[in-house]
Amino acid sequence: MKNYLQYLATVIIMCLFSYNAYNQTCSSIAIENAKALNYLINGTSKVDYSVYKEGERIYSVYKSGAYEIKSYYICKNDTIQIYKGESPQYIVTGADTTGYSIFGVCKIPLHPKVGDSLLSYSEFTTNSFSSSSRQEAYKTSSYVLGNYRYTTATLHSDIVNSNFGMGTWSHYFVNAVVAAEEKITFMGKEYTAYKIDYEMWMRTVVSYSASSEDKFLDKKNQKVSKKMNKKSEKMADKMADNEEGYKVTPIEAWFVPELGTYVKVLFYNSQKILVTTKVELVTIN
């Protein structure tokens, strides 16, 4: 969860800093200070960060070793439309496609007003892997003849194909509202920041299935699969914070339209206790 929050903050901050690079209505100093993002994302180590434009899209690419985030934004109708990447985005392991992600669109107005509600958006990611192994099991049967009970055991042996999957449903900007307008000072200049309060809902469920050409082994594994999947659903429900079955993360974010970026983002747990700060460029006045 902690790594995912870091990824989320990274994607958003990269997109919004890209906004500054090509839109003259925003401050040009942000792209010049991209090095400062090292402290936000990757400690004091250096990162490979680039911005380029293709048509109406402005892309930002962040690389650190084998880790890469490529996202883009489109500005329409006085609104920034943020895309984490192409959708659907396929997950490839080796030569196999093992999953995919479907991204929603984050829309943030450049001229918000206190009390405005913002549109929510959703994402879905699924990934799976398969394995095969030989499985053995004895099927027993018995009968009574006279004063004796006779039991026979038949060995069943066959290849069992197992499949493990994981699906994550995420909803962002749930109950999002522009809560306040505040002044901030960034690099000696005063800006207007808009505080946005919203929730992130997330639910992850693990699934299992197994099959075999041997009817006895196949039936046995079907029963095991049902039990494991029910247990997984119960575990997800147990971790949920609401009746809908989702883990809820309250978030406070200060957005500066003139800079085209968040200057501070705070993540809380369901009890409204501060968990972590992922973006903190300024101290709010």
Q: Element order, helices and strands? A: HHHEEEEEEEEEEHEEE
Identify the overall geometry: elongated
Total strands: the figure is 13
Q: Which whole number gives the mean pLDDT?
A: 77
Rg over alpha carbons: 26 Å
Indicate the low-confidence ranges by residue numbers.
Answer: 21-45
What does this structure look like?
- By secondary structure, the protein is an alpha+beta fold.
- It has one domain.
- 19% of the residues lie in helices and 55% in strands.
- The chain is built from 4 helices and 13 strands.
- It has helices at residues 2-22, 29-32, 37-41, 215-239, and strands spanning 48-54, 57-64, 67-76, 79-83, 89-93, 96-102, 106-109, 121-145, 148-186, 189-211, 247-256, 261-268, 274-280.
- The chain has an 8-stranded antiparallel beta sheet with strand order 5-6-8-9-10-11-12-13.
- A hairpin with a 2-residue loop joins strand 9 (148-186) and strand 10.
- The protein is elongated, with a radius of gyration of 26 Å.
